[in-house]
Amino acid sequence: MNKRLTRKWLPAVAVLGLGVSLVACGSSKSDTASDASTTDTAAATADTMASTTDTAAPDATAVGSTSWDTNFTPWKDGKPVNCKPATGPLKAAWIYVGPINDGGWTQAHHEGLKAVQAKFGDQVVTTYKENIPEGPQVLTTIDQLVKDGNTVIFGTSFGFQDAFVTAAGKYPNVCFEFETGFKSAANLSQAYGAGEDGDYLAGMAAGAASKTGKVGYLAPFAIPEVIRGVNAFTLGVRNINPAATVQVVWTGTWFDPAKERQAAESLISAGVDAISSAQDSPAAGEAAKAKSIPWVGYDSDQNANFPEVWLTATTYHWGVYEVPRIQQVLDGTWVAGDYYGGLDDGFVKMATFGKLVSADTQAKILAKQAELAANSGSQFTGPIKAQDGTEKIAAGASASYGDLMGMNYLVEGVLGDLPKS
Amino acid sequence: MKSPLRLERRLTQPKKLNWLVPLISIAAALALGAIVLLLTGKNPLSAYHRILETAFTSKSSFSGTLVSATPLAFTGLCAALTFRAGIINIGGEGQFFMGAVGATLAGLALSGQPTAIIILSMVVMGALFGGLYAVIAGVLKAKFNTNEIITTLMLNYLAGIFLNYLIFGSTSYWRDPQSMGFPTGKQLQPRAFWPSLHIVGFTVPLGFLLATILGMLLWFLYARTRFGYEVNVIADAPSAARYAGMRTRWKIISVMAIAGAVAGFGGASDVGDFRHVLDAKGLQLAGYGYTGIVVAALARYNPVSAVTVAILMGGLTNAGYALQGPNFPSGLVGTLQGLILFTAVAGEVLTRYRIRTQKSGALSEVAA
Hints:
The complex is a heterodimer of chains A (421) and B (368). With 421 residues, chain A is of the alpha/beta class. Chain A is built from twelve helices and 16 strands. Chain A has a seven-stranded mixed β-sheet, sandwiched between helices. In chain A, helix 4 (136-147) packs parallel to helix 5 and helix 6 (195-209) packs antiparallel against helix 11. Chain A is globular and about 65 Å long. In chain B, 50% of the residues are buried. Chain B is mainly alpha-helical. Chain B has helices at 17-39, 44-57, 59-84, 92-109, 115-144, 148-169, 206-224, 226-236, 238-243, 248-275, 280-286, 288-298, 303-323, 330-352; strands at 5-9, 196-199, 202-205, 353-359, 362-365. Helix content of chain B is 70%, strand content 7%. Chain B contains 14 helices and five strands. In chain B, the strands form two sheets. In chain B, strands 1-4-5 form a three-stranded antiparallel β-sheet. Chain B has a two-stranded antiparallel ribbon with strand order 2-3. Chains A and B meet through helix 1, strand 3 and helix 4 of A and helix 3, helix 5, helix 6, strand 2 and helix 7 of B.
């Protein structure tokens, strides 16, 4: 019995064994030097990141009035990179993880491309690649774009980051702009913005719209950036209704319309009467519309498509950053660095208010908006308590930039757990 | 009412069909594609020229094609092995994920060892994880006659959730404790990176070379050994196999183990050759396991052809990314790719069946 068994299995074992021995041969013969050693050059740049909350002028900052560069800090020892072609127009390319009409993240970036093209006309030729999966294809795509003559390349998905770091080393005369991540290089910038300010304002709209004080929230991943948004939103909800709660569902995806809609439906059937989705698609709006539940979207103004249920949304305006950056490339003054836009320079904007937001609520939101534009992150002024009641930020103290960037707890009023760590 | 056209199985397959049908398929795809391109106001010749150039004819492009082809060669082999054995294993995706998990574990744990030892261990662990994962569905099918389409598909979702757990849902050994913002996996040390080979100006990933060798070995296993013979008999005539005393259940489990190990090997290559990290999100977006099924079908479940088809598929993928842009929507790229695959599969039917028309009871042949 045993003997027979071994015989039947022998071919399988033999094949595996052969394969394994071949691996050993192959690797010992071949060149072990790797052409993509990226980890060393990609220094994590927490210390060089700009702290915009401190530098923003506290007095009388009108929304969208300051210049983008108040929110930009070059890397330490940053030097201008000349990535303008000697002849012909500048070629700039955007690489997207999703489709250009996703009604959210990718679409917002594509608006940036359009703003650049509209501003510079014949001086700049823009192109883009959409639906690029995270993985080996990113580098292949960059190679092709560089071969086609592009010298400014924007990457718009976190998962592209390592490929961009590798490419930045491989092509020192190409300017790389990354939206959003955290690694730096002499020719690799990082850009993002204070979405948490918009999220707080959106939370106020949801807090006012909910009659029962039960609000739902679709969150993609339990990472600081998203947790910050959940917390800011909850603080905003409780600014209007101190007894309200926010029920969080972690969807585990940035963009998956079917899953987003399903999650929204489950929240609605659990009894929430206002809902917010920090997802890239407006699918939660469909679920909200079906049940006539007021809805806060994310990263695109869906007022026209969902007039019955629309409240507002945090939106990002990449053109605010990208247009002057392209100008710098043309001027030969482009330096890599970190940008953290806000309500002050117009990078973060509130979408239009839906008809469900009363004039009274709008006035409250606009007043708070002016406050946050002048002092980004001030919604996290203490006392801030975590879910279990422990004090995270003492009364009167404000959150540091590090507190915000590394936020790993949910505030009081949020229902739902963080994955244990 | 009867349809005037019907398919009839060929009793003999003329040899010339083996090259004639693929040729006609490609010509038909190009012609159909040209119509679509003309209708949308594009120049078909320049589009086709760009596809060729960005997929195959320039050295650097072809190297990129091999990068895209590598994971597909492994998952294509995995699917080909099981489908040839009459097992509908949709689970190459999950087996690939598990292989990546096992290989990353080995790569991280042995980071102090010589490169050859790291690579060897990554392959062994990848194959082991992928193989064992496939055996779950294999045992269920062999012992309880569970439908493997359902179990392998469900196991794919489970493997995806497991990846998410390792990177997003826990502080596992695979997760980088330093990752700021978005959780990512721990990077392998550069010495654990699989080297690329430089052959006459082409950059060939080590994984691709290994997949090619593996393809030949598996062809040998299926075409020239008793094991392969029995698998073929079991697939084509299960009752005859049982009557002849062949151990059907063990064969099912072994085939699943081998196929899973091949997919797991692919996962190891993906980590070692390209990602150098357990990329929970990127792996799930890629869908290598599912594309592998298409590769296997186009290769008619022949292991050697599967590697060749993987190259074509990798080229088509890369050309697609190169082609799209402001003047060439990605939907149009998808349409072209779909047309080529569709005609290829449709053409493949014609090698096994012939079309007959039915006119007033008389049958007349229309297609060779």
